[in-house]
Write a structure and sequence with these properties.
Two copies of one chain form a homodimer. Chain A has about 250 residues and is of the alpha/beta class. The first copy, chain A, contains twelve helices and seven strands. In chain A, helix 1 packs across helix 12. Chains A and B meet through helix 7, helix 8 and helix 10 of A and helix 7 and helix 10 of B. The complex binds adenosine-5'-triphosphate (ATP) (2 copies) and magnesium ion (MG) (2 copies). The site of one magnesium ion has 4 residues of chain A, from helix 1. One adenosine-5'-triphosphate (ATP) sits at the interface of chains B and A.
C-alpha cells in the first residue's frame, strides 16, 4: 500500500521543504522506493536535489500537456525519483480554476504510476490554494511541520479546518501523519513554550523526535544535497534519521 | 505625497510581517501618520498588534461588501492605524478571479483615504497571487526582505520578474524601495555568503542596516507588541530603528 504524504503548512519558512528533502532521501536510504513531488513554484525541493528549472515539470502535468510518466526523473540517489517543479507553476493556480474537477488533477495523474512507489512525499507551497488542495486530495496523510516560534501557532487552526474540508468533499481517507516540531533551539524559552502548546493541542500526534536548529541543515541546500549526504554526523542528520525511523515504525504497526 | 510601501517576497518566513509591524510602529513613533495594511490571510500583522479575528476586515473591502473607511481601526499606538486581515481572506483570491479589474481593487479602495497618511505599509502573503498583485499595483514602492539563507536567494529572480510585469501592465511608477537583509547571524559563514551575493546582485539597493537574528524579535508577537514596545533596548529594536532612520533619510532626499 503506497503511502502518499503531503508536507503542508501555509505558514512560511517552517521547514516543509527541508523535511520533504530529508525524509524522502532517508526513506530512499532505507531502500524504500520513494517519489518526491515538488508542487511549490519556488522549486526549492528540486534545487535541494540539484535539479534546476527542469522542463517538463509538474506544471505540464497539471495543465494536461504532459503525461506524468514523461516528467518523473531519477535523482542521483538510488530508490529516489523526483517530479520536479518549475517557476512557471506560479501561474498554474489561476489557469486551473477554470478546469473540470480542478482539485483532483494530481490524484488522477498519480493513479497511473503510484504503485511503483512505497512512499510518495509532496512538498507544498506556503498557501492553501489549489496546489495544496491538489496535494491533500491525492494524499493518504498529511505531515505538519511546526516551527517553534509564536506565529507558527496561529495558523494551525486554519490548516486543520482546510484538512477537514478536504476530507469532507475530496478525500474521506485523509489522515494526519503527525506534527513535527522544527528549528527547536534548546536555549530559548520561546521554543519550549511553543513545543508545550503544540503538545497540548495535538497530543500524541506530535512526533517524539524534535528537529533542532542546526546550521548544517541550512547549508546543505547550497550544495544541492540532503543532510545525509552533506554531513551525516551533524545533529540535523541524526534528528532527521530518528524522525524517519519513528515514521517508519508508526507505519509498520497494524 | 503619501508613500505606499509593499513588503513582499514569495519565499516564506523571511521576515515580511516582522518588518511590516516594526517599520510601521517606528514610523508612528517618529510621528508620521501611518497605516499598516495586512493583506495576508494568516493575519500575523494584525495579531502582532493585538488584533485578532477582526470583522469587518480587508476581505470585505476586496470583495466590495464594505467601504474601507468603515474597516480601518486605530491601533493602541498614536499615529498608527490598521486595516486588519481575517482568515476568510483565504478564499478571496479565487473569488476575485472573476471580478472586473481584479488587480486594482485595493488601489481603487485606497484612493478615498490614502491622503490621510504619510506612510502606508502593506504586509503581503508568501505568494505571487492576486493578493500580492493588488498590493504591488496599489504601491509607490516595494521593500524586499531577504533572509540570510540559501533558499531565500533562489526566489529573487522570480520576484523581480513579477515586479517588472506589474510595472508594465498595472503600475508604471512602482519603484524598488530597497532590499533588507534579515535574520543575519554574525557567527555563521552562510549568513556572510548570502549577504555578499545579495549585495552583488542588488548593489546600493541593499539597505546598509542589517537586521540580526535576535530572540527578542520573535518573542514580541506573543505579547502582541512591536519590538519598540516589547524591548526597546534589544539589538532587534536598535536594528529596526537604524533601518527606519535609513529609510526616512532615503525618502527625504529630493
Ligand atoms: N532545523 C533547521 N535548522 C536550521 N535551519 C533550518 C532548519 N530547518 C530549516 N532550516 C532553514 O530555514 C529556512 C526555511 O526552511 P524551509 O525552506 O524548508 O521552509 P518551508 O516551510 O519549506 O518554506 P516555504 O514556506 O517558503 O516553502 C531554510 O533556509 C532552511 O534551510
Ligand atoms: N531578526 C529576527 N530574529 C529572530 N527571529 C526573527 C527575526 N525576524 C523574524 N523572526 C521570526 O522568524 C519567523 C518568520 O518571520 P515572519 O513571520 O516575520 O516572516 P514572514 O516572511 O512574514 O513569513 P510568512 O511568509 O509566513 O508571511 C517569525 O517567527 C519571526 O518572529
Ligand atoms: Mg518550501
Ligand atoms: Mg508574514
Amino acid at each position: 500500500m503506497t503511502r502518499i504524504i503531503s508536507i503542508a503548512n501555509q505558514k512560511g519558512g517552517v521547514g516543509k521543504t527541508t523535511t520533504a528533502i530529508n525524509l524522502a532521501s532517508l526513506l530512499a536510504a532505507a531502500e524504500k522506493k520513494t517519489l518526491l513531488i515538488d508542487i511549490d513554484p519556488q522549486s526549492n525541493s528540486s534545487s535541494g536535489l540539484s535539479i534546476f528549472k527542469h522542463n517538463p515539470s509538474i506544471y505540464d502535468v497539471l495543465i494536461g500537456q504532459e503525461d506524468i510518466k514523461n516528467v518523473i526523473i531519477e535523482s542521483y540517489m538510488p530508490y529516489l525519483d523526483l517530479l520536479p517543479s518549475n517557476i512557471n507553476l506560479v501561474g498554474a493556480e489561476i489557469e486551473m480554476v477554470e478546469l473540470q474537477s480542478r482539485e483532483t488533477i494530481l490524484k488522477n495523474s498519480l493513479s497511473a504510476i503510484y504503485e511503483r512507489y512505497q512512499y510518495i512525499i509532496v512538498d507544498c507551497p506556503p498557501s492553501l490554494g489549489l496546489l495544496t488542495l491538489n496535494a491533500l486530495t491525492a494524499s493518504t496523510s498529511v505531515l505538519i511541520p511546526v516551527q517553534c516560534e509564536y506565529f507558527a501557532l496561529e495558523g494551525l487552526g486554519q490548516l486543520l479546518n482546510t484538512i477537514k474540508i478536504v476530507r469532507q468533499y475530496f478525500n474521506q481517507e485523509l489522515l494526519i501523519e503527525g506534527v513535527l516540531l522544527t528549528m527547536f533551539d534548546t536555549r530559548l524559552r520561546l521554543s519550549h513554550q511553543v513545543a508545550e502548546e503544540v503538545r497540548k493541542y495535538f497530543g500524541d500526534k506530535v512526533f517524539k523526535t524534535v528537529i533542532n536548529r542546526n546550521v548544517r541543515i541550512s547549508e546543505a541546500p547550497s550544495y544541492g544535497k540532503p543532510i545525509i549526504l552533506y554531513d551525516a554526523t551533524s545533529s540535523g542528520a541524526i534528528n532527521y534519521m530518528a524522525f524517519t525511523t519513528e515514521l517508519l515504525e508508526r507505519n509498520s504497526k497494524p
